[in-house]
Design goal:
Blueprint lengths: L3 E4 L2 E4 L5 E3 L6 H11 L3 H8 L3 H10 L5 H25 L5
Length: 97
């Protein structure tokens, strides 16, 4: 049997060589709000993360969104903002004379 500990949203399995940050649990309402901020639909989100669309829509019934989703969406939004900023800089600062 493996030794398992969950402390402050950190899941550590001692018999394996990985440590996973679990993050905060979201309600379905919070999930849908963050999706709006990310400008994603449930369909596009499921495609991005390689999940079955029906599995994602089932989160609404259980109001139990996996803990990794919040951090994934936050990083998605941050990455999108960085790409947009990079494009703006490229277009306006790095113009050829």
């Amino acid at each position: 049997m493996s030794s398992v500990a969950q402390i402050n949203h950190l899941f550590i399995c001692y018999n394996y060589t990985y440590i996973i940050y679990i993050g905060e649990q979201l309600t379905n309402f919070e999930f849908e709000e963050i999706l709006k901020k990310a400008k994603l639909t449930k369909k596009s989100f499921s495609s991005c993360v390689g999940m079955n669309y029906v599995s994602v829509t089932n989160w609404k019934q259980s109001d139990n969104v996996p803990a990794w989703v919040k951090s994934w969406l936050e990083l998605y939004i941050e990455n999108k903002e960085c790409r947009e900023l990079k494009q703006i800089i490229k277009e306006n600062v790095c113009k050829e004379d």
